[in-house]
Amino acid sequence: MAAIVLQTEIELKTFIKKVKNKGLNIGFVPTMGCLHEGHLDLVQASKNKSDITIVSIYVNPTQFGKNEDFSSYPSPLKADIELCNQRGVDAIFIPSTKLLYPEKLSYSTQIIVPTISKKLCGKTRKNFFRGVCMVVLRLFNLVQPDQAYFGEKDYQQLFIIKKMVRDLFLNIEILGCPTRREASGLALSSRNKYLSTNEKEKASSIHASFKKISSLISTEIYDSEILIKSVESIILDSGIDIDYFEILNQQSFRKSKIVTTESRVFFGGYMGKTRLIDNFSLSTSF
Ligand code: AMP
Question: For the domain bounded by 190-281, which CATH number is listed?
Fold first, then answer.
């Protein structure tokens, strides 16, 4: 059956009321569209666990900086709806900016998860996680999900959303799903659309560097700095500029001199103008 497309608050509320009256629970997959198999893994996870799956498609202006790609972000809406239909999504919520942000930013309620939002992606994208939390909380309050699904591809985002949900006592179960990759190891991302075949090939160096770190750990090299320094050139030689490349404890997001099974390597950088991020758990490298 085709997914129902909901655009207004009334349409959404009517749909949700019907679902809740039937005693069904709602699984929610927030996205910015330009859907790929990574997004669709979240849809499948929702279909496996939740009764009804709602996908939202909204390119959120508050999480983009001034010189970023908000206006050029790919939005193949027709293809996205078709993919949702094929994968058995029940409803697609496509809100307007007027609905989510009726007033300009300086008049809108803002959500800040401090400290952690300043690390990694938050270092150069100063207001990025504020924008993410502002939109996700608004969407949560509108969609009223029982479960919400997020990708580990954006591990820092997943962590921050979990914290926001805990801190604000939201009654929503947040579930993380593994990163979907191309055969080359490159993590799927809507922004890969900006890359040529050759650039995509080169961008697989990010995952190759993670694998190299993992193999160095298995040879008993445990010093984080040495590990990063040993593999950095794999990424730099492929023509990627590094924004951050760090090994952190995945629970505290603090640097640890010596890697442990709790360590995760985080990368953010640019291939030309295209931002690429990825991360990798080192738990099985020992
Ligand atoms: P986006 O549309 O980029 O905002 O992503 C929407 C959701 O899909 C987020 O929870 C992302 O973490 C998740 N996601 C994006 N890419 C992937 C991927 N390659 N594998 C798994 N989840 C992903």
Answer: 3.30.1300.10
- Tokens 């954006």 belong to 154
Question: Residue ranges of the domains in the chain?
Answer: 4-177, 190-281
The CATH architecture of the domain made up of 4-177 is 3-Layer(aba) Sandwich (3.40)
Report which DSSP code applies to 187.
B
User: What is the helix (H) or strand (E) element at residue 28, kind and residue range?
Assistant: strand 26-31
Q: Whose CA is nearest to atom 14 of ligand 1?
A: 151
Order of all β-strands in the sheet with 240-249? 240-249, 263-271, 274-281
At 280, list the tokens: 């990798």
Residue partners of 162: CB distance under 8 A and separation at least 6: 174
Cβ pair 167, 199 in contact under 8 A = no
Q: Active-site residues: which are they?
A: 39
C-alpha 37 – ligand 1 centre gap (Å) = 9
Report the separation in Å between the CA atom of 153 and the middle of ligand 1, taken as the mean of its atom positions: 6
**Ligand 1 near 62 CB (within 6 A):** no
Q: Which pTM was predicted?
A: 0.98
* Residue appearing with tokens 């730099």: 236
**286 residues of the chain, pLDDT tens digit each:** 899 999 999 999 999 999 999 999 999 999 999 999 999 999 999 999 999 999 999 999 999 999 999 999 999 999 999 999 999 999 999 999 999 999 999 999 999 999 999 999 999 999 999 999 999 999 999 999 999 999 999 999 999 999 999 999 999 999 999 999 999 999 999 999 999 999 999 999 999 999 999 999 999 999 999 999 999 999 999 999 999 999 999 999 999 899 999 999 999 999 999 999 999 999 999 9
The residues with which 246 forms a beta bridge, in sequence order, are 266
